[in-house]
Amino acid sequence: MIERKKEMSRDRVSRLVSWGHWFAFFNGFLAMIIGVRYIETIGAPDSWIGWGYLIISTLGHFSFLAFIVYLVVLFPITLILPYSKILRGLAAVAATISLCILLYDTIIYDDYGLHLSPFVFDIAWADLNALLQGTSYIVTPLGLIILELTAANYLWKRIESIRKSNYGYKVVIFIGCCFVSSHLIHIWADAADIQEITRLDDAYPLSYPATARSFMESHGIEKSRINAAEHQIQPSLNYPIAPLQCQTSHHPNMLVIAIDGFRADLLDQNTMPFLHQYAQQNHYFSQHLSGGNVHHSGMFSLLYSLQGSYINANDLNYRSPVLTQQLKQQGYALAHFAPQMALSQPLAMYQDFESHLQDTDSGIAAADIKAIETFTQWQLQQNAAWFALINLQSPDSYDTPIGFLGIETVKPQHELKPAQKVLFNQYRQSLNFIDKQLAKLLSETPDDTLVIITGVSGKVFTSNNDEPRSNLSPANVKVPLIINWSGNQYAKTVDYPTSHNGIVPTLMTQMLNCNNKASDYSSGESLLQPSSASWTYVGDDQVFGIYQEDEITVIDRHGKYRIYNKDYSQQLRKKISAPELIEVMREGRRFYHH
After folding, report:
1. What is the full per-residue pLDDT of the chain (594 aa) written as tens digits?
2. Helix, strand counts (H, E) of the chain
3. 561, β-bridge pairs
4. Alpha-carbon distance 269 to 277, whole Å?
């Protein structure tokens, strides 16, 4: 009798386990249907390769997630309470909750471009009313629980006939093959740079596709990399959102001087006497922020006028800034003068420019001098309107030319360590060198030229080359901005906050007579009026800061954040401001949503 009871108990557990697997498979199928919403957000593939991978990975991924939920939640209960009525009820509730979480994640992903995490959940909770509209958030769970209870009972009543059909092993093998194949295909796509596949990496929650780039490169597979142009996907970034409507008969020459490592607090009478006086005589923006803390993010914000979260958008590897596109269309000659540098992101940033890059064998300062001399010769040869970008980099490397007689050392206004004091005064020498070069350059520039002088980024005094990458303090992002409006003396100091994202809208509206609203092509607004936004985004897509009136929030790509006051002292007990972060996240998706 005892053996009979044990046998019946084992049989009941076996039936429940078998039922649980089929119930999990059913919910995996429902999860796939919900998963279509992710594809609507990122855009469907445009080739059979992309569709093939998407189908295989979808089958494997959501079936795997459903099985994991079963294994963690239901399987232990099956062993502890092997009663079908209890288990069916609990399974229906667990499945409904899981699918509702998945549905909520699709809403979050569509709005923010991020999947649910503790950090994202906190932000989304503050924005719940905007995310959940109508009555669907009430009707959907009720519909799901009814569907789940119906499916649970249906499968239980027919579990014996299903077991006898022997389809279970075939389904397991098929799903297993899909799961493994999707990872193998991704390994190949990652090594061969098949962007039609790799762009789907973050589409699904808890998705971590396998990669083996280093292994394949060591075995020579990287050498057979397929030309990315052959697999270039169709543009997904709507930049600009609407066609530009620009028309002007007035074509003034324009000169933009962008200086790497140019702190706003050292534009003073002692360090840069010429530029200090020049700022007082022209349009000077005293509360100006670069869009980045290093060269590539600062130049990105200056030329593209987009939030730094777009910096690695694939489209921008072959799409130049709308400003240079429009200048070229209106017949301007465009040229870029700078020391030789590593290739910047995005790849197409300087695509419309004629490049005049100087070698740095004799030092950065010597290359800066050569860049200015080359520009002077170039502009004398132009017969049509021109737009020139001169990038000077001496201050960022504390460099001065051999034999340069600088200025006397002074005591720093802020407390610095001994090594920092040395860098501080050497930095001032470099700024003084640049000041003398600017005086010479502007004396040889035609009076009717629009001149913009600004910094690419600020400067922190350190010999550690990695520190500026993560430092988003005012010292590293606050830069001067001076505009001379085509030779017209316009002495005005602007004290409201501005940023690099406002430079392109200002030029597009004031100089190129574009009628579009700035939001069609920019994350900023014209510099000539205070911004309607209460925050400024600084950084790229890995580490960024949100500048507000009294605080600075620094966030990394994992969602970890630190909050500082305006003097960049960390506020240990301060919580993140959800409304501003929600606006930042939406701006980071806005050019994908049309």
Report:
1. 555 555 555 667 788 888 888 999 999 999 999 999 998 888 888 888 889 999 999 999 999 999 999 888 888 888 887 788 888 899 999 999 999 999 988 888 887 777 887 777 777 776 666 666 665 667 888 999 999 999 999 998 888 888 888 787 888 899 899 999 999 998 888 887 787 888 788 889 888 888 765 445 544 544 344 343 334 444 478 899 999 999 887 889 999 999 999 999 999 999 999 999 999 999 999 999 999 999 999 999 999 999 999 998 888 888 999 999 999 999 999 999 999 875 666 779 999 999 999 999 899 999 999 999 999 999 999 999 999 999 999 999 999 999 888 888 888 877 788 888 889 999 999 999 999 999 999 999 998 899 999 999 999 998 777 787 889 999 999 999 999 998 677 889 999 999 999 999 999 999 999 999 999 999 999 999 999 888 999 999 889 999 998 899 998 876 788 899 888 888 767 777 777 888 888 898 889 854
2. 20, 14
3. 555
4. 8
Indicate the residue type of 318. Y
Kindly list the strands in the beta sheet with 561-565, ordered across the sheet, starting from the edge strand earlier in the chain: 536-539, 543-547, 551-556, 561-565
Specify the residue for token string 């010597």.
366
Number of neighbours of residue 297 by Cβ within 10 angstroms: 28
C-alpha distances in angstroms, 267 versus 263, 276, 547?
A: 7, 6, 22
- In this structure, the number of other CB atoms found within 10 A of the CB of residue 20 comes to 24
Task: Name the nearest CA neighbour of 414 among 265, 522, 516, 294.
Answer: 265
Cα angle 65, 68, 69 (rounded to 5 degrees) comes to 90
Beta-strand pair 288-289/536-539? unpaired
Task: Name 493's bridge partners.
Answer: 284
The residue type found at 426 is: Q
How far apart are alpha carbons 392 and 394 in whole angstroms? 6
Token pair listed for 241: 């959102």
**Alpha carbon distance 109, 124 (integer Å):** 11
Distance between CA 380 and CA 256 in Å, rounded? 17
State how far the Cα of 258 lies from the Cα of 344, in Å rounded to an integer: 15
* Strand positions, DSSP E, 200-281: 254-259
Packing angle, helices 84-112 and 118-126, rounded to 10: 70
| Burial environment of residue 7 by CB neighbours within 10 A (0 to 12, 13 to 18, 19 or more) | exposed
Q: Distance between CA atoms of 483 and 474, rounded to whole angstroms?
A: 21
Task: Looking at 166-294, list the stretches that DSSP marks H as alpha helix, in order from N- to C-terminal side.
Answer: 167-192, 195-198, 213-218, 273-281
424: region left, alpha or beta (phi > 0 left; psi from -120 to 50 alpha)? alpha
CA distance 506 to 288: 14
